[in-house]
């Protein structure tokens, strides 16, 4: 018996890294996994990879900033599979990485359109069949940037902090319909993109990439940076019945780099 046997799940922003690992974890636990992103070839390849493990998988083109695309994606899933049980909001825009004084606020709006309004559009579409079923699980992939503020991350941090607040609102409003809404808040997620970023920082500072890694890892209680596959297991927990009484929560998945409040 898998943790998600009989469940149908949609993972947005699916591709290399986190989306891939979530899709593989869900497939391993018995879910029918539908992966969505704007690049059709990428999600088709990921669906093939998930299916190769023996799971049932499908791919859709999905642009969360387009309400019509969100509605069509959910309608297609329900038409084919009869239900939608789990939504993982993984699609994101990482902002402009500029200070506020140098920023173009239209670029901030674009980040907000993806991370906040786009996520809400897809969630709104997904909630309809969940409410009809009397059961649903929504997991927001949030970030440390919403709670640990650093310069030049303003657009990203603001959009994700707004998402963190509305996660609680959704949990409070949708609980009566059997729909749970939670979030994971990773810190640095070890993988190719962070490794490349650390290489860049190390070169600028005249140290080795290993020294750069160890410096950041030393900020965590456990002394390492979790891989995206480990974050995916926390998403799986929130999507499964193991977390049945859990809703409106922000789960820090960061090896103890910081601790969430009570």
Describe this entry's structure for a reader.
Strand 5 (136-141), helix 5 (154-174) and strand 6 (179-186) form a beta-alpha-beta unit. The protein starts with 7 loop residues before the first strand and ends in a 9-residue tail after the last strand. It is an alpha/beta fold and 262 residues long. The mean pLDDT is 97. The chain has helices at 18-28, 40-51, 67-81, 105-133, 154-174, 192-205, 209-217, 228-239; strands at 8-12, 32-37, 56-61, 86-89, 136-141, 179-186, 250-253. It contains eight helices and seven strands, in the order βαβαβαβαβαβαααβ. A seven-stranded parallel beta sheet has the order 3-2-1-4-5-6-7, with helices on both faces. Helix 1 (18-28) packs parallel to helix 2 (40-51), helix 3 packs parallel to helix 4 (105-133) and helix 6 packs across helix 7 (209-217).
SSE layout:
Elements: E1 8-12, H1 18-28, E2 32-37, H2 40-51, E3 56-61, H3 67-81, E4 86-89, H4 105-133, E5 136-141, H5 154-174, E6 179-186, H6 192-205, H7 209-217, H8 228-239, E7 250-253
Parallel strand pairs: 1-2, 1-4, 2-3, 4-5, 5-6, 6-7
List keywords for this structure.
8 helices; 262 residues; single chain; alpha/beta; seven-stranded parallel sheet
The averaged pLDDT comes out at 97
Total of helices? 8
Count the beta strands.
Answer: 7
Helix content: 40-55%
The spatial strand order of the largest sheet comes to 3-2-1-4-5-6-7
Summary of the model, kept short:
The chain is an alpha/beta fold and 262 residues long. It is built from eight helices and seven strands, in the order E-H-E-H-E-H-E-H-E-H-E-H-H-H-E. It has helices spanning 18-28, 40-51, 67-81, 105-133, 154-174, 192-205, 209-217, 228-239, and strands spanning 8-12, 32-37, 56-61, 86-89, 136-141, 179-186, 250-253.
